[in-house]
Structures are given as structure tokens and as C-alpha cells.
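Subject: mismatched residue count in predicted assembly?

I count 472 residues in my input, but I want to confirm that the predicted structure covers every chain. Input:
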Amino acid sequence: MDIKAYIASGILEQYAFDLLSPAERSEVEANLQQYPELVEELRQIEYALEKYLSLYQDKPSPDFQQRLNDSLENVVPDPLPTPPPGTPPTRGGTNWWLTGLVVVALAAAAWLFFDNQQKDRSYQQLATEYQNLQLDCDETTETNRGLLSLLQTIRQSGNSLIQMRGTDKDTTAFASIIYNAETKKSYLDIINLAEPAADKQYQLWAIVDGTPVDMGVFDVNIDTSKTLQEVPFIENVQAFAVTLEPRGGSVSPTLEEMVVIGATG
Amino acid sequence: MLMTNNFEKRDQLEQQIALLLSRSDRAAIDLIYQNYAETLLGVIKRIVGSHEIAEEVLQDTFIKIWKNALKYEPGKGRLFTWFANIARNTAIDKVRSAGFRKSKETTSTENLVSIDVLGSEESQIADAGLQKVLDSIDPKYRQLIDLAYFQAYSQREIEEELGIPLGTIKTRLRKAIEILREKLKDDHLKQLLTVIATLTNLLNDLH
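Triage response: the counts match. Full output below for your records.
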């Protein structure tokens, strides 16, 4: 049987609404025995019906319950038709046995369900934790790669290190130039320079024959302290210095704004 | 008695009541009264119109439930549906009875079943949240649910009353219920219910 088509036909709704002929009802009941999907579908329909009908709730009169109890006084449930001969007359017993089994089964189902939910949650937690660790690991690998390449640059043969010390303006300021006459490359290593105001920028100078030569402006932020910045290579430098200039840099250094300076040799 | 979405609890309640009914334990009646009397009265009143007659019918309904206490079969549907259908059928029998017609003659209603299909229920609905649910349902679907449920119209009769083809009625009734169901979504509950349904079915097979 095509369960989906059967459900889509709307017959279960009609069954719940008690609109079917006895023959049709028996047919639906037989199908309910056979297909659990239909039982579940019917329950959902019945929930909806209960919800809908409860919209019309109305309060009985205060004395109604008393009248009801009086009217029920002498009423007893009709006995079930006696089972045909051949059927063991232990219906009650069977029911007890079945009821017990159903209770145990329901308890087991509930336990399985909640246990499964619990495991699901634990699994989710572990999965999240694992993912976080993996992200941490990736980040560390990335950092290591950067540090290794930094180390390689620093250990290059022919390197000389020119440390630029802070001036009176800020004695803790500190930056270095790694200068390599063999490879003709130089790098700026910003170790401790305060972040400048938005309209200012640091500018690097080389002093050649007593004359400052512009080596460009640079920014200072969290990332710049972690890496080396390649800067133009200039021959025969006597000293390097950094000044704080208006954003974009100046043609000649503002000497009063010199932050660090270091001589070669 | 607040109607909640927590059908797990409703099911537990039903199991408890079903057990009491199967033992002919009068405590069942008290539980049914506490939990369902207002809804059943509402259903009946919607069919018979008068509050006084509705209470008479509700009393008859309880008598029928009690008389048939041993006949409820969980495999054939929920207990609430069983109660509601007894109440609905008793109410419809009432309005179709000669006595009812006679008592109603002075007010003269064309329709045997004295509800009007749309409107007039505003005053009856206490819960604002539920009223919203109701408002969100397209009138054409509500009309169908009401005709099908409160008046127990057969599809043939609905077809005549509304002038809608039979095929459309079936799909619309399903659609109407689907709209109601959408408000009740609870996937976890569904999972559990599927498990229970499967087990119940296995047990039935065993039986």
C-alpha cells in the first residue's frame, strides 16, 4: 500500500471525525494495525482536533457535577460480550499481562529516547570542543610558520643589526633595522612604538653622509609588532632614525619629533 | 483546565483514564470531568445552542461513556476523540429528536443543527492565544471543519451545502487539519510517539 497516498487521501481525517461508514471504518482500523505510520499520523490529526475543539470550552453550572454524580449513581459499565468458546477465558489476565508489558515497553521507549537525547547532547558538546581545538591548532600552526620565516630572515648570513633606541621623548621606544649588504636587503623590526594619533604617521630615515634620506612611512598596529617589514635598501648608511610626521610623511624630518635613532657600525 | 501543547502529558492522562475505565473505577469519571467537561460542553453547546440543553446532553454523554467504559480500544484512536465523538453524536441525536424540534419551534430554526457556521463563537472562546490560532485559519477551512465536525455532514451533504466538489472537500479537510497541526509542531515528541506507536503495534500483533 502507498502509505503517503493513503494519508494524502484525507481518509484518516474523516476517520477521526467519525464520518466514515462502518465498512470504511473497519478498513481503516485494519490498516492502523498494520502500519505504525498511520497510527502516528492519526494521533497528530487527533491532537489537532482536540486543540480545535478545546477552543469552544464552556463552564458547566456550579451544581452540574453534583447532578451528574447523582445521575451516574445507578449506572454500571456494560459487560463486554463473553468471548466465544475456544478462547481462553483469561481475558482480564491477558489484559493485565499486556498492560504490564505496555507499561514496561513505554518506560523502555521513554528511557531509550531520553538516553539517546542525552548522548546526542554529549556528542554535540564533544564535536564543538573538537572543532574549537582544531581551530586553535590551525592558528598555532599559522603563527609558527610566520615565526619560522621571521627566524630565517634574521639568521641570514651577512646580517647586521642596528638597534634604534628611544629619544628623550619616549625612552622605552625601540625598533631595529636588519641590514644585509650581501643580499642588499633591509628590514624594519618594530619592537615598541606607540600607536600614533590618526593624523600622524611614523617615517623612517637613513642618514647618508650627514643627510637624511626618506625610506617611507609605516603604520603601527598589533600585527606590525609580530613581523618584519622590508624597507628600501640604501648603501653606506651611517644611522637610521624614525620621526613622527603628519600622515603621508614629510620631505625632510621634523627633528623635534624624532622617536628612535641608532647608528651603524 | 488549560489546554496545553504538551500532548505527552495529555497522553499520560489518557493512559491513566483508560486504565481506570478498563477496571470500571469511578475515579475515571472524576478525571474525565476535571479534564474534559468544559471542552465537551463547548462542543455540545455549539451543536444544540442552549446552555441548559447542552448540560442535559453532557450528562447523557457521561452516562454513555460510563456504560461503554469497557469498550474503548486504544488501538482505534485517542480517548479524547472517543469522548468528543460520543458527545457530538449525542448532541446531534438530540437536535434531530422530536422533542428538541418541538421545544425549538417557537424560535424556529431552519437548520436542524442550530449553529451558524461562522461567527458568534467569539464570546465563547476564553483563551486569547487559541483565538489567534482560530483567526489564522482561512474561513473556508473552518467552515469545512465545522460542517464536518459539529454537524457531522457527510461529504455528499457538504458538497450540496457548499457547492464544492467531493475531491476538493477531502483535500480541504486534510488541509484544514494540517493548518491546525502546524501550530502543534514538536519534533522530539513526534520521535517518541513514533517509537511508542511502533511498540504498540508490535504488541497488537502479539495479541
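The first helix of chain A runs from residue 3 to 8. Marking this ticket as 'not a bug'.
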